[in-house]
Design goal:
The complex is a heterodimer of chains A (132) and B (467). By secondary structure, chain A is an alpha+beta fold. In chain A, 29% of the residues lie in helices and 26% in strands. Chain A has a four-stranded antiparallel beta sheet. Chain B is built from 19 helices and no strands. The chains are: A alpha+beta (132), B mainly alpha (467). Chains A and B meet through helix 3 of A and helix 18 and helix 19 of B.
Chain lengths: 132, 467
């Protein structure tokens, strides 16, 4: 059975993720984000590489390039499952530059959400608390 | 950095579209059928609006590229088609467009000076000045472009409006508005009207500095619509103030119209317009073609010296080649309407081919890269692409209503295409060493934009040759 909530993780270069977070916080995207039901974003800095083994774009198609870990960022968004497609569409349009390093998006189920401070669960835990 | 507004982008677009050589086209079209030429203007405008929709979508899938349509074609259709259509479409067609504008400027100056100095002296002179200015790295800023374009739009709109509604001080001519309403006569004139609407795609490189990418197609659309309104008003104005026959035979139809409508003040107003238009159009051509050739050189489609820049960061080789060829054509003494029309129609034919290529690219990339996110997508795909290709092909087949001129244009194009084919074949086989007709892919073409991509390959090639 499909879960009511999903976790969207975007793994990409630090610059791309920083840019999208900056854009999402700017006025022109705030309205769109509200509509999509995104109530929070978490960014984790990490090291990693993708299918290009960490080699730069200029070295594409070159064989035997050594595996290099590069600074990456992981952006985590939890949202309602029914809005996942819209959120992904929004993120893809923002992330797309056509260059290697635009990132990858992973979607997984979230079984339960609990706000520790109030004990609220599910959708209530995602949105502003109603408990004073 | 300050973002470019829709107004700024439209100014650039209109600045590219407005050229005094347009008056030769409008005079030629209107003198043949009268006011029904408006139908041809509307159809040509619609055809080019479809083309810019496709170009906007290609820009959305491959943003911030310097080579424009050439790079989109390289990604979709491979190097052979790219070199033939794009080197032809842009480099060669602009070699014809620049002298056409210079000739119009020369004609106006001859009119003012009383014919003491030949037209070629003025046209070659202005080209040399602009080449030197560009070589010194002096670019017209967007702000200056906005001022020039706004001035031109306002004055041309004023001239069209005053003429269309009979508000001029000159005497109105009693003549039939309609010389022929037959579609058989009107439709082939769409190729003549096409010349009014080329160049709106030069807004695309501004996209990266605009507030929203969706403003790119909007700006291109608005530029074309403004030009369409101006040309329609002009045709209505011709009907009132210039006898059709006299209009068709005129060397400077814009001067004739302005003088008939406003008397001597019209003449001086037109001199201002001619100077502004010649400077603005030739300068835009030199600047944008140099930029596009640099991009094509970076892609390895043109020899490396095309992208070499001088200490002022100006691509000197392209500027000198373009300037030399422009001066050469101008010095040959082109001045009559027929000669200018030959140049503009030949240029149009190459441009039509590049628009067809853009439509095909959109279709190919929609099939191959269906899921790639696009900030802009052409609505009702593939309707506009198919109709756009059909209209452009129709215009190519009816490039001129004069059979002798048509044969001359086809002959010249055939010779140029054969030359381009030979160059493309040798260049792709010996230098690029890639399949002739296989698209190189979007991500590879984007990567090729970086000089690092070519430096790494050059280094590896040198290493392997050494070993």
């Amino acid at each position: 059975m499909e879960s009511d909530f999903s976790r969207i993780e975007v793994v990409g270069s630090v610059s791309r993720i920083s840019l999208i977070v900056e854009q999402m916080g700017s006025g022109k995207h705030l309205e769109a984000i509200k509509k999509l039901g995104i109530t929070g974003i978490t960014v984790v800095n990490a090291m990693g590489c993708g299918v290009e083994s960490g080699s730069p774009e200029s070295m594409m198609d070159m064989v035997d390039s050594p595996l290099t870990l590069l600074p990456k960022s992981i952006m985590v968004i939890i949202c309602e499952t029914e809005k996942v497609d819209d959120v992904i569409d929004f993120l893809m349009k923002q992330l797309y530059s056509g260059h290697i390093g635009d990132g990858k998006i992973f979607v997984s189920d979230v079984k339960k959400i609990i706000r520790v401070r109030t004990g609220e669960e599910g959708i209530e835990a995602l949105h502003e608390s109603k408990i004073i | 950095m300050k973002k470019i507004s829709v107004f700024g982008a439209v100014s650039t677009g209109v600045g590219m579209l407005i050229a005094t050589s347009c008056f030769i086209s409008s005079a030629s079209g209107a003198s043949q059928v009268g006011t029904p030429f408006i139908a041809a203007i509307l159809i040509a405008c619609a055809a080019n609006m479809m083309a810019v929709l496709s170009i906007a979508e290609l820009n959305a899938i491959m943003p911030n590229l310097t080579g424009g349509i050439a790079q989109y074609t390289l990604a979709g259709m491979g190097p052979m088609i790219t070199i033939i259509t794009m080197v032809g479409g842009y480099l060669i067609s602009n070699v014809f467009a620049a002298p056409a504008e210079g000739a119009m400027f020369g004609n106006v100056m001859v009119d003012i000076t009383g014919g003491k100095i030949p037209s070629a002296v003025f046209s070659v002179g202005i080209t040399i000045i602009l080449v030197v200015v560009n070589l010194m790295g002096v670019n017209m800023s967007t702000f200056l472009q906005e001022i020039v374009a706004t001035f031109m739009v306002v004055v041309l709109f004023f001239l069209g409006f005053v003429g269309a509604f009979g508000m001029g001080s000159g005497e109105e001519v009693a003549q039939n508005a309609v010389l022929s309403a037959s579609m058989k006569d009107v439709m082939p004139l769409t190729a003549t009207a096409f010349w009014f609407f080329i160049g709106a795609e030069f807004i695309v490189p501004l996209g990266k500095d605009m507030k929203h990418p969706k403003q790119v197609p909007l700006s291109m659309f608005l530029s074309l619509a403004i030009m369409c309104v101006i040309q329609i008003l002009m045709v209505l104005g011709y009907r009132r103030y210039t006898p059709w026959k006299e209009l068709g035979d005129a060397v400077s139809p814009h001067m004739l119209y302005a003088v008939h409508m406003l008397g001597e003040p019209g003449r001086y107003l037109m001199v201002f317009i001619a100077i502004f238009a010649a400077v603005s159009t030739q300068n835009s051509i030199l600047g944008s073609v140099a930029e596009i050739c640099c991009g094509m050189s970076k892609m390895g489609l043109l020899p490396e010296f095309f992208s070499r820049k001088n200490s002022h960061e100006a691509p000197w080789a392209v500027l000198l080649i373009l300037g030399f060829l422009t001066c050469l054509i101008e010095a040959s003494g082109i001045s009559t309407g027929e000669q200018v029309s030959f140049l503009t129609l030949t240029c149009s034919l190459f441009w039509m081919l590049s628009y067809i290529t853009s439509h095909i690219n959109v279709i190919l990339l929609r099939v191959r890269m269906k899921k790639v996110p696009r900030n802009y997508k052409t609505p009702f795909f593939p309707t506009f692409q198919i109709v756009g290709i059909a209209l452009q092909m129709y215009m190519m087949l009816h490039i001129s209503t004069d059979p002798v001129q048509k044969a001359g244009i086809y002959r010249l194009c055939l010779i140029l295409f054969i030359g381009l084919f030979i160059y493309a074949f040798i260049w792709v086989k010996r230098k690029m060493k890639v399949p002739f007709f296989r698209g190189m892919g979007v991500h590879r073409v984007i990567a090729m934009e970086s000089p690092e991509y070519h430096r790494v390959r050059e280094m590896l090639r040198a290493e392997s040759e050494k070993s």
